[in-house]
Specification:
There is one protein chain. By secondary structure, the chain is α/β, with parallel strands linked by helices. The protein has 2 domains: 125 residues, 2-Layer Sandwich (Ribulose 1,5 Bisphosphate Carboxylase/Oxygenase), CATH 3.30.190.20; 84 residues, Ribosomal protein L1/L10, domain II (Rossmann fold), CATH 3.40.50. Helix content is 30%, strand content 21%. A hairpin with a 5-residue loop joins strand 8 and strand 9. The longest helix has 17 residues. The termini are far apart. The mean pLDDT is 89.
Length: 233
């Protein structure tokens, strides 16, 4: 029998996981039950009715959250010459070419997003076994292969996030911090759901949005009702 900590036991006693919650009640429940000493992230898991084994049904893209994620994003930028100088002026510490590749190969992990200029991709592609499984490989569709380092970094700092479904057809994303106003969390969620709707495969049959869960970093996942879909209608 699994033994819960007092904090987790309190959550399970106060949340009926067999029922669905309105987005407003779900957010309030997460806030009321947050007892940790740091500001938790608010995360969303959207279970899509896609078949991840079919390439044409895989969902991948980006969206700019109006109120950002509240996170301090750390970058690794593969660039040289003027692009490298630009990245360093923006406060990026991990900037380079072969030297940066060597750092990552040796275990450097202090970054959340990798950006590369097109000419540096010969170097970055060799890091596929390391970056690929973590979803960190630069991709032109996500805007992370670019000659405009400044614009890309500013967009991401201003709330642009990348998303892609996992092997179970679920999109995982952070949509803010637990100290955000409810309105800001809901607006960020609306932006994500709205863009996901646009990515719905044309030949998909059945429900596209199957289930939607919201949670905090150290909290439990709460299923929210489909009325949250009214946000995008």
């Amino acid at each position: 029998m699994v033994k819960f900590t007092k904090r987790m036991d309190l959550m399970y006693k106060n949340i009926n996981l067999k029922k669905q919650f309105s987005i407003e009640n779900a957010i309030n429940s997460l806030k009321n039950l947050s007892k940790v000493k740091f500001i938790e992230s608010i995360d969303i898991a959207v279970n899509l009715g896609i078949n991840p084994k079919k390439t044409e049904q895989n969902i991948r893209g980006n969206v700019c959250l109006p109120y950002g994620t509240g996170k301090n994003i750390k970058f690794a930028v593969f660039a040289n010459n003027q692009e490298a100088i630009t990245a360093k002026k923006l406060g990026i510490e991990l900037v380079g070419m072969n030297d940066l590749s060597m750092k990552i190969t040796k275990g450097e992990k202090n970054f959340d997003i990798v950006i590369s200029t097109p000419e540096a991709m010969d170097i970055v592609s060799k890091l596929g076994p390391i970056l690929g499984p973590k979803g960190l490989m630069p991709n032109p569709k996500l805007g992370t292969i670019t000659n405009n380092i400044t614009e890309t970094i500013k967009k991401i700092r201003n709330g642009q996030i990348n998303f892609r479904n996992d092997k179970n057809g679920i999109i995982h994303s952070s949509i803010g911090k637990i100290n955000f106003e409810n309105m800001k969390i809901k607006t960020n969620l609306k932006s994500l759901l709205k863009i996901l709707k646009k990515y719905k495969p044309l030949k998909l049959k059945g429900n596209y949005f199957k289930k939607i869960y919201i949670s905090s970093t150290m909290g439990i996942s709460i299923e929210i009702t489909k009325d949250c879909m009214n946000l995008i209608n």
